[in-house]
Amino acid sequence: MTANQVAFLLVGGLAALGATGVVACGEKPVRSALCLVLNFFLLGVLYFMLGAELLGIIQVMVYAGAIMVLFLFVVMVLALQSQEAPRHKERRWPLAIVGAIALAATVASVIVTFDPSPFSQPVGDGYGKPQAIGAYLFTEYALPFEVASVLLLVGIVGSVLLARRNA
Amino acid sequence: MGLVNDVPLQWFLALSLYMFVLGAIGVMVRRNPVVMFMCIELMLNAVNLTFLAFARYQPSGALASGDVPTAMAGQMMVIFVMAVAAAEVAVGLGIITAIFRLKNRADADDLGSLRG
Fold first, then answer.
1. Is there a contact between A92 and B28 (Cβ–Cβ < 8 Å)?
2. What domain range is B84 assigned to?
3. Which residues are CB-neighbours of B68 under 8 A, at least 6 positions away?
4. A3, A24, B31, B47: least buried by Cβ within 10 Å?
5. Going by C-beta distance under 8 Å and a sequence separation of 6 or more, which residues neighbour residue A48?
């Protein structure tokens, strides 16, 4: 077991723990949100380990930062605590467990029998650096980039419209 | 520098699968719309992790096609997933806020008025 593997098990295990906390933290959405922050932050660390440095930074800033602040704001402003009606909760567990096991078994069977040998081509150094990403974002992916900016604008206007008080 | 050739690709895929399945369970089981939303974010991030893992461990011959290299294509996809997720969260949380203001509670089971 190499140092990198130990590091992955540590970070990945904690990330899995955070993901578990999102679903398992019972009545208080704040706890779920904080577990999700932990998970997103550790995912950023994993992105770094994968060599995608810029995306690791974006992950921490956009997900663990901006998006989770939005979630926490809504949770705190709305005071959704213990709004979950207990009458509905038990009923769904069997379906959820069966569906989850089916999904997990299907994908896990692929992962277990997966032959990684074709996926070993070394990537060029610095493929996750801002220069490399920018070079593609503004050439090959210029159109999706512009479409994404329009989508974000629509999102901003839409959310302001929805959240306005006397809409 | 940070490259993890000795961590098997399957480990990343297994973590991603775990996160995705947990997110799916959460969407089915939790009834608080905000928590359901968080579970959707969890699923999106699981997919992002898969994209980046395959970007890092690219298949041989991926560069020969003359197209965008796999490593870049995967990262671009993650960037756009993040952009779409940000827009989705902004609008979705706005909708939840509006519903909460209308009904003074927000439980996914109470929101069946469009069911007909």
1. yes
2. 8-60+68-106
3. A136, A140, B76
4. A3
5. A56, B2
What is the CATH architecture of A1-81? Up-down Bundle (1.20)
Q: What tens digit of pLDDT does each residue of B24-55 get?
A: 998 888 888 888 999 999 999 999 999 998 88
Minimum distance, in Å, between the CA of residue B64 and any CA atom of chain A: 12
Domain residue limits, chain A: 1-81, 129-167
φ and ψ at residue A22, rounded to 5 degrees: -60, -45
Q: Which one of B6, B20, B43, B56 makes the best mutation probe of the A interface by having the most chain A beta carbons within 10 Å?
A: B56
ipTM of the assembly? 0.88
User: Is A142 near chain B, with CB under 8 Å?
Assistant: no
Say if the Cβ atoms of B8 and A75 lie within 8 Å: no
Q: Is residue B111 part of a domain?
A: no
Q: Does the predicted model carry a pTM greater than 0.90?
A: no
Read off the pLDDT of residues A36-77 as tens digits, 9 standing for 90 and up.
999 999 999 999 988 889 999 999 999 888 999 989 988 888
Q: Calculate how close chain B gets to A129, using CA atoms only, in Å.
A: 11
Position B115 in a domain: no
Q: Is-contact B49 B19, C-beta < 8 A?
A: yes
Helix B9-29, helix A3-24: angle, nearest 10: 10
Beta-carbon separation of A23 and B15 below 8 A: no
Number of domains, chain B: 1
CATH number at residue B20: 1.10.287.3510
Pick from A62, A116, A136: CB nearest B82: A62
| Residue A87, both tokens | 């009458």
Closest CA to B53 of B20, B1, B7: B7
DSSP 8-state code for residue A48: H
Look at A43 and B45 and tell me if their CB atoms are within 8 Å: yes
